[in-house]
Amino acid sequence: MGCQGIQLIRISSESQSARTTQTSATKTIQTEDSAALDKAKFQLPFGSALFRENVYFSPAVTAQPSFDWDGIQRSLQLRCISDRFDLKALISLQTEVEDCAKKIEAVESMRKQIQEKSGSGLITEDIRSQGRALRSDLKQLKEKMRKILPTFQKQALLLPNTLHPLCPTGPDTAVVRPLGIGASKKKISWSEVADDIYEAPVGVYFTGKLASLEKDHVDYARDYWFGLEDDGVPTYPINLSDFARGPAVEGTACPLLHEAIRLEPTRGDLFQVEQDGESNPKWLVNPNTSCYLVGSASLASFIAYLVRQKLVCTTPTPFRLVTSGSCYTGTQDDGSTFKYRTGTDSSNKPPFEQRKQVSLLELSSSWAECETGFERVVSQLCNFWSHYQPSWSLRHVRVPAPQLLPCEMLRSVIDAKLPDCPNGPSSLSLASVSLLHEWISRRVSVRIKSDEADGTQAFYPHMVYARLMDFRSLMTAFKRTGHLEEVPK
User: Fold this and answer.
1) What average pLDDT does the structure give for the chain?
2) Are 233 and 376 in contact (CB under 8 A)?
3) Within a 13 Å sphere around the CA of 399, how many CA atoms are in the beta-carbon half?
4) Would you call 116 exposed, middle or buried from its count of C-beta atoms within 10 A (0-12, 13-18, 19+)?
5) The whole model's pTM is what?
6) How many degrees, rounded to 5, is the angle at CA 255 between CA 411 and CA 359?
7) What is the mean pLDDT of residues 23-43?
8) Which pLDDT belongs to residue 310?
9) Cα–Cα distance for residue pair 260/73, rounded to 1 Å
10) What local confidence, expressed as pLDDT, does residue 4 receive?
């Protein structure tokens, strides 16, 4: 990766951080009945990857979300999901967790004072008695915390992000402004490439001239954004993996877990648990090491990269990471494990959808920087598309609250108005910018060390994620309008 000004220090991967000391009732899978093993491979992971929900797995991260309860209540109402949460009970549970944490801290402080007295030789029977009582209190408090904290986290981590004041509150998309129609340069007709699409059971492929167009247009968009530093925001090219572990996928909620493509787990991801009173042991899939195919241009792939690294920022924030690659979305609604399908039956729904994209993640150290960065990316994206496809009727619109992903506070979209068609939409999203704030970085515990002062300060990065160009959407608009501008020279 050609990153200047950012020092990368590799740390242990999620699979390493997910290793636990097994109890006597838990053992790693060895030679077992193959039918039971196969059945276990295709069941969903047990529990959440973001927090301790099961004694057999340790969390890969420690989530620390912030709770603006008034903002959360407004967000739930405008997203039309208030009935899914009991906020009063959740707030009460949070108070109980905080009180328990304060008591644990106070007891540990008193124990430390007693230990200091013991070390100085001022030990008495009364001090010993106090020490035993404090030990007993601490044990009870920690047992209580182990019970109530996962209960609170399990509900709290399902809460969506708060909403930005600019987010439309009604059911419809809000048009900010049309981008206008400019002078056309040199157009390509859809009839020239209409025969260069090949449909197979596992997806749709571009061949011939269309394959060349894909490479040319994706490369152009990538190079354009690599070199765009007019506002002094450094941009770093980065190559990401198509695969991400469970915590990164669950932490972003993009794609949603039921849309993510979970791969068949390895033996190291499976555990057999013997439970008292049951003759048949239970098979569990480790949610921390479960691997998903998400694509190297997805938001989850960016987060998986950040989880695996420690970033030391030696240049001022904000800064950007830009990548080009694929995004994959599963078409199986049950969240089942991905399995290849065979045959040429056209009624078979492809197991996944692949989209070639150019994506951007901007990281900031403050909310003010994040808001400014969002507006800057939106403005630059409008300018890009106005010059890139000047003959299309393009608009800048904002997505209403009920249609936002859980991670989003606000989403701006560049969409194209399409010619009337009985079976097609009247408009199509070509690119988008999402304002994420700290929602993701706090859930997956991503921090960036600052180079300021002694370099020990770390902050949760504020995030803006942008889908700069999606080639599948571009082709759909190309087909409906009948023409596409050639790549600008």
Assistant:
1) 83
2) yes
3) 22
4) exposed
5) 0.84
6) 60
7) 56
8) 74
9) 28
10) 39
Angle at CA of residue 262, ends 81 and 15, nearest 5°:
105
- The total of other beta-carbon atoms located within 10 Å of residue 243's CB is 19
Question: How far is Cα 201 from Cα 45, in angstroms, rounded to an integer?
Answer: 27
3-state SS, one letter per residue, for the chain = CCCCCEEEEECCCHHHHCCCCCCCCEEECCCCCHHHHHHHHCCCCCCCCCCCCCCCCCCCCCCCCCCCHHHHHHHHHHCCCHHHCCHHHHHHHHHHHHHHHHHHHHHHHHHHHHHHHHHCCCCCHHHHHHHHHHHHHHHHHHHHHHHHHHHHHHHHCCCCCCCCCCCCCCCCCEEEEECCCCCCCCEEEHHHCCCCEEEECCEEEECHHHHHHHHHHHHHHHHHHHCCCCCCCCEEECCCCCEEEHHHHHHHCCCCCCCCEECCCCHHHEEEECCCCCCCCEEEECCCCCEEECCCCCHHHHHHHHHHEEEEECCCCCEEEEEEEEEEEECCCCCCCCCCCCCCCCCCCCCEEEEEEEEEEEEECCHHHHHHHHHHHHHHHHHHHHHHCCCCCEEEEECCHHHCCCCCCEEEEEEEECCCCCCCCCEEEEEEEEEEECHHHHHHCCCEEECCCCCCCEECCEEEEEEEEEHHHHHHHHHHHCEEECCCC
Q: How far apart are CA 413 and CA 17, in angstroms?
A: 38
- Distance from the first to the final alpha carbon of the chain: 26
Range scoring the smallest mean pLDDT among 69-73, 354-358, 421-425, 467-471? 421-425
Rounded Cα gap, residues 246 and 249, in angstroms: 5
The C-alpha atoms of residue 397 and residue 432 are separated, in whole angstroms, by: 9
Q: In which residue are the tokens 């950040």 written?
A: 306
User: In the CATH scheme, what is the homologous superfamily, with its name and number, of domain 174-266+289-485?
Assistant: Bira Bifunctional Protein; Domain 2 (3.30.930.10)
Token match 């100085």: residue? 120
Question: What torsion do the CA atoms of 246, 77, 371, 259 make, to the nearest 10 degrees?
Answer: 30
**Residue holding tokens 């959808």?**
353
State the pLDDT at residue 32.
Answer: 47
What are the residue boundaries of the structural domains of the chain, listed by start?
86-156, 174-266+289-485
Residue 299's pLDDT is what? Answer: 97
pLDDT for 307 beyond 50: yes
- Contacts with 345 (C-beta within 8 Å, 6 or more apart), sequence order: 201
pLDDT at residue 188, as a whole number:
92
